[in-house]
Amino acid sequence: MKVEQDVLQKNDRLAAENRGWLRARGVTAFNLVSSPGSGKTTLLERTVREAGLPATVIEGDQATDRDTQRIRAAGARAVQINTGAGCHLDAHMVAHALEDLDPERDSTVFIENVGNLVCPALFDLGESAKVLVASVTEGDDKPYKYPHMFRAANLVLLNKIDLLEHVPFDADRFAAALREVNPRARLLHVSATRGDGLGAWYGFLRDRPTSA
Ligand SMILES: Nc1nc2c(ncn2[C@@H]2O[C@H](COP(=O)(O)OP(=O)(O)OP(=O)(O)O)[C@@H](O)[C@H]2O)c(=O)[nH]1
Ligand SMILES: [Mg+2]
Questions:
Q1: Which domain holds residue 28?
Q2: Is residue 212 in a domain?
Q3: Residue 27 lies in a domain
Q4: Ligand 1 atom closest to 163 (CA)
Q5: Overall number of domains in the chain
Q6: pLDDT in tens, 162-209
Q7: Residue partners of 165: CB distance under 8 A and separation at least 6
Q8: Could you tell me the distance, in angstroms and rounded to a whole number, from the CA of residue 114 to the centre of ligand 2?
Q9: Among residues 108, 146, 133, which one has the least CA distance to residue 187?
Q10: What is the CB neighbour count within 10 angstroms for residue 193?
Q11: Residue 144 lies in a domain
Protein backbone atom coordinates (compact mmCIF):
# COMPACT_ATOMS: atom_id res chain seq x y z
CA MET A 1 0.00 0.00 0.00
CA LYS A 2 1.28 3.46 -0.96
CA VAL A 3 0.87 5.14 2.46
CA GLU A 4 2.59 2.25 4.22
CA GLN A 5 5.48 2.38 1.72
CA ASP A 6 5.91 6.12 2.28
CA VAL A 7 6.00 5.64 6.06
CA LEU A 8 8.60 2.89 5.79
CA GLN A 9 10.73 4.83 3.30
CA LYS A 10 10.71 7.88 5.55
CA ASN A 11 11.64 5.67 8.51
CA ASP A 12 14.52 4.10 6.56
CA ARG A 13 15.88 7.57 5.73
CA LEU A 14 15.77 8.63 9.37
CA ALA A 15 17.30 5.30 10.46
CA ALA A 16 20.21 5.92 8.08
CA GLU A 17 20.70 9.33 9.73
CA ASN A 18 20.68 7.71 13.18
CA ARG A 19 23.25 5.19 11.98
CA GLY A 20 25.51 8.01 10.77
CA TRP A 21 25.04 9.92 14.04
CA LEU A 22 25.97 6.82 16.06
CA ARG A 23 28.96 5.94 13.86
CA ALA A 24 30.33 9.47 14.13
CA ARG A 25 30.47 8.96 17.91
CA GLY A 26 31.72 5.40 17.74
CA VAL A 27 28.54 4.31 19.55
CA THR A 28 27.17 0.79 19.04
CA ALA A 29 23.39 0.43 19.36
CA PHE A 30 21.45 -2.79 19.96
CA ASN A 31 17.72 -3.00 19.29
CA LEU A 32 16.16 -5.51 21.71
CA VAL A 33 12.90 -6.97 20.46
CA SER A 34 10.63 -9.61 21.96
CA SER A 35 7.09 -10.44 22.95
CA PRO A 36 5.97 -8.76 26.21
CA GLY A 37 7.64 -10.15 29.30
CA SER A 38 10.34 -12.35 27.75
CA GLY A 39 12.91 -10.67 29.97
CA LYS A 40 14.43 -7.70 28.10
CA THR A 41 14.58 -5.34 31.07
CA THR A 42 15.79 -8.06 33.45
CA LEU A 43 18.60 -8.85 31.01
CA LEU A 44 19.49 -5.17 30.65
CA GLU A 45 19.52 -4.57 34.42
CA ARG A 46 22.02 -7.36 34.79
CA THR A 47 24.03 -6.30 31.72
CA VAL A 48 24.33 -2.76 33.06
CA ARG A 49 25.64 -4.13 36.36
CA GLU A 50 27.95 -6.85 35.05
CA ALA A 51 29.10 -6.41 31.46
CA GLY A 52 31.65 -3.72 32.24
CA LEU A 53 30.61 -1.58 29.25
CA PRO A 54 29.79 2.12 29.40
CA ALA A 55 26.11 1.88 28.47
CA THR A 56 22.91 3.91 28.29
CA VAL A 57 19.38 2.74 27.54
CA ILE A 58 16.38 3.93 25.54
CA GLU A 59 13.21 2.33 26.87
CA GLY A 60 10.16 1.93 24.64
CA ASP A 61 6.77 1.11 26.16
CA GLN A 62 3.20 2.04 25.40
CA ALA A 63 2.86 3.53 28.89
CA THR A 64 4.74 4.19 32.15
CA ASP A 65 8.41 4.79 32.92
CA ARG A 66 8.67 1.63 35.01
CA ASP A 67 11.44 0.07 32.90
CA THR A 68 13.43 3.32 32.86
CA GLN A 69 13.24 3.43 36.66
CA ARG A 70 14.53 -0.15 36.81
CA ILE A 71 17.48 0.67 34.54
CA ARG A 72 18.37 3.79 36.54
CA ALA A 73 18.23 1.76 39.75
CA ALA A 74 20.68 -0.67 38.12
CA GLY A 75 23.07 2.24 37.57
CA ALA A 76 22.74 3.44 33.96
CA ARG A 77 21.31 6.57 32.41
CA ALA A 78 18.05 5.91 30.57
CA VAL A 79 15.30 7.79 28.73
CA GLN A 80 11.74 6.59 28.26
CA ILE A 81 9.66 6.78 25.09
CA ASN A 82 5.92 6.16 25.51
CA THR A 83 4.26 5.19 22.25
CA GLY A 84 0.64 5.46 23.46
CA ALA A 85 -1.39 3.32 21.06
CA GLY A 86 1.73 2.62 18.96
CA CYS A 87 3.13 -0.91 18.86
CA HIS A 88 6.78 -0.15 18.04
CA LEU A 89 9.54 2.45 18.17
CA ASP A 90 10.47 4.29 14.98
CA ALA A 91 13.66 6.04 13.87
CA HIS A 92 12.24 9.52 14.49
CA MET A 93 11.46 8.75 18.16
CA VAL A 94 14.91 7.24 18.60
CA ALA A 95 16.63 10.28 17.05
CA HIS A 96 15.06 12.51 19.73
CA ALA A 97 15.89 10.06 22.49
CA LEU A 98 19.53 9.89 21.35
CA GLU A 99 19.79 13.67 21.56
CA ASP A 100 18.38 13.61 25.10
CA LEU A 101 20.63 10.75 26.09
CA ASP A 102 23.79 12.20 24.52
CA PRO A 103 25.76 8.93 24.85
CA GLU A 104 29.48 9.23 25.43
CA ARG A 105 31.96 8.35 22.68
CA ASP A 106 32.59 4.63 22.05
CA SER A 107 29.79 3.60 24.40
CA THR A 108 26.92 1.16 23.94
CA VAL A 109 23.25 2.13 23.62
CA PHE A 110 20.57 -0.46 24.27
CA ILE A 111 17.17 0.27 22.75
CA GLU A 112 14.44 -1.80 24.41
CA ASN A 113 11.62 -1.90 21.88
CA VAL A 114 7.94 -2.19 22.74
CA GLY A 115 7.11 -5.82 23.58
CA ASN A 116 5.71 -7.09 20.27
CA LEU A 117 6.96 -9.70 17.80
CA VAL A 118 5.21 -8.16 14.79
CA CYS A 119 5.53 -4.38 14.24
CA PRO A 120 9.18 -3.79 15.32
CA ALA A 121 10.35 -6.11 12.52
CA LEU A 122 9.57 -3.47 9.90
CA PHE A 123 11.18 -0.44 11.52
CA ASP A 124 14.93 0.00 11.32
CA LEU A 125 16.10 2.32 14.12
CA GLY A 126 19.70 2.73 12.96
CA GLU A 127 21.00 -0.01 15.27
CA SER A 128 24.09 -2.14 14.66
CA ALA A 129 22.24 -5.35 15.48
CA LYS A 130 18.81 -6.61 16.40
CA VAL A 131 18.71 -8.92 19.40
CA LEU A 132 15.58 -11.02 19.74
CA VAL A 133 14.86 -12.22 23.26
CA ALA A 134 12.70 -15.34 23.17
CA SER A 135 11.83 -17.35 26.26
CA VAL A 136 11.02 -20.97 26.96
CA THR A 137 7.54 -20.13 28.25
CA GLU A 138 6.50 -18.88 24.79
CA GLY A 139 6.64 -22.21 22.92
CA ASP A 140 9.29 -23.71 20.62
CA ASP A 141 7.37 -22.99 17.39
CA LYS A 142 7.66 -19.20 17.50
CA PRO A 143 10.23 -18.76 14.68
CA TYR A 144 7.71 -20.30 12.26
CA LYS A 145 4.86 -18.11 13.49
CA TYR A 146 6.71 -14.75 13.55
CA PRO A 147 9.16 -15.22 10.66
CA HIS A 148 9.71 -11.52 9.90
CA MET A 149 11.00 -10.76 13.38
CA PHE A 150 13.15 -13.90 13.62
CA ARG A 151 14.52 -13.26 10.12
CA ALA A 152 15.51 -9.71 11.06
CA ALA A 153 17.44 -10.83 14.16
CA ASN A 154 21.25 -10.98 14.24
CA LEU A 155 21.26 -12.72 17.60
CA VAL A 156 18.53 -14.73 19.34
CA LEU A 157 18.75 -15.12 23.10
CA LEU A 158 16.65 -17.99 24.39
CA ASN A 159 15.92 -16.73 27.91
CA LYS A 160 14.48 -18.33 31.06
CA ILE A 161 16.31 -21.62 30.47
CA ASP A 162 16.18 -22.06 34.27
CA LEU A 163 12.51 -22.96 33.65
CA LEU A 164 13.21 -25.63 30.99
CA GLU A 165 12.43 -28.54 33.31
CA HIS A 166 9.03 -27.06 34.14
CA VAL A 167 7.65 -26.32 30.68
CA PRO A 168 7.10 -28.46 27.56
CA PHE A 169 9.70 -26.65 25.44
CA ASP A 170 11.99 -28.58 23.09
CA ALA A 171 15.20 -26.54 22.69
CA ASP A 172 16.30 -28.64 19.68
CA ARG A 173 12.99 -27.99 17.92
CA PHE A 174 13.37 -24.27 18.59
CA ALA A 175 16.94 -24.28 17.19
CA ALA A 176 15.82 -26.17 14.07
CA ALA A 177 12.92 -23.76 13.51
CA LEU A 178 15.26 -20.79 13.86
CA ARG A 179 17.75 -22.34 11.42
CA GLU A 180 14.98 -22.83 8.88
CA VAL A 181 13.72 -19.27 9.15
CA ASN A 182 17.09 -17.53 9.63
CA PRO A 183 20.22 -19.68 9.21
CA ARG A 184 22.52 -16.70 9.90
CA ALA A 185 21.21 -15.79 13.37
CA ARG A 186 23.35 -16.77 16.35
CA LEU A 187 21.54 -18.50 19.19
CA LEU A 188 22.54 -18.32 22.85
CA HIS A 189 20.78 -19.95 25.80
CA VAL A 190 20.57 -17.63 28.79
CA SER A 191 18.85 -17.08 32.09
CA ALA A 192 18.71 -13.41 32.99
CA THR A 193 17.76 -14.31 36.56
CA ARG A 194 20.11 -17.25 37.26
CA GLY A 195 22.95 -15.99 35.08
CA ASP A 196 23.44 -18.91 32.64
CA GLY A 197 25.02 -17.94 29.31
CA LEU A 198 25.54 -14.29 30.18
CA GLY A 199 29.31 -14.47 29.63
CA ALA A 200 28.67 -15.33 25.96
CA TRP A 201 26.16 -12.46 25.71
CA TYR A 202 28.69 -10.00 27.15
CA GLY A 203 31.27 -11.38 24.68
CA PHE A 204 28.87 -10.69 21.80
CA LEU A 205 28.47 -7.12 23.05
CA ARG A 206 32.21 -6.59 23.38
CA ASP A 207 32.75 -7.77 19.77
CA ARG A 208 30.70 -4.71 18.77
CA PRO A 209 29.11 -5.72 15.46
CA THR A 210 29.02 -2.71 13.19
CA SER A 211 26.39 -3.51 10.58
CA ALA A 212 22.74 -4.53 10.78
N1 LIG B 1 12.51 -17.65 35.62
C2 LIG B 1 12.93 -16.59 34.95
N3 LIG B 1 12.20 -15.45 34.94
C4 LIG B 1 12.68 -14.40 34.24
C5 LIG B 1 13.90 -14.43 33.54
N6 LIG B 1 14.08 -13.24 32.94
C7 LIG B 1 13.02 -12.48 33.26
N8 LIG B 1 12.17 -13.18 34.06
C9 LIG B 1 10.90 -12.70 34.63
O10 LIG B 1 9.99 -12.43 33.58
C11 LIG B 1 9.14 -11.34 33.92
C12 LIG B 1 9.20 -10.27 32.84
O13 LIG B 1 10.51 -9.74 32.80
P14 LIG B 1 10.85 -8.32 32.17
O15 LIG B 1 12.32 -8.19 32.22
O16 LIG B 1 10.02 -7.25 32.78
O17 LIG B 1 10.36 -8.55 30.67
P18 LIG B 1 10.35 -7.50 29.45
O19 LIG B 1 10.67 -8.25 28.21
O20 LIG B 1 11.21 -6.33 29.76
O21 LIG B 1 8.81 -7.05 29.46
P22 LIG B 1 8.13 -5.83 28.64
O23 LIG B 1 9.03 -4.64 28.77
O24 LIG B 1 6.81 -5.64 29.31
O25 LIG B 1 7.97 -6.30 27.22
C26 LIG B 1 9.64 -10.86 35.29
O27 LIG B 1 8.81 -11.43 36.28
C28 LIG B 1 11.06 -11.38 35.37
O29 LIG B 1 11.50 -11.60 36.69
C30 LIG B 1 14.66 -15.64 33.57
O31 LIG B 1 15.74 -15.79 32.99
N32 LIG B 1 14.12 -16.69 34.29
MG1 LIG C 1 10.77 -4.32 29.72
A1: 2-207
A2: no
A3: yes
A4: 1
A5: 1
A6: 999 999 999 999 999 999 999 999 999 999 999 999 999 999 999 976
A7: none
A8: 8
A9: 133
A10: 14
A11: yes
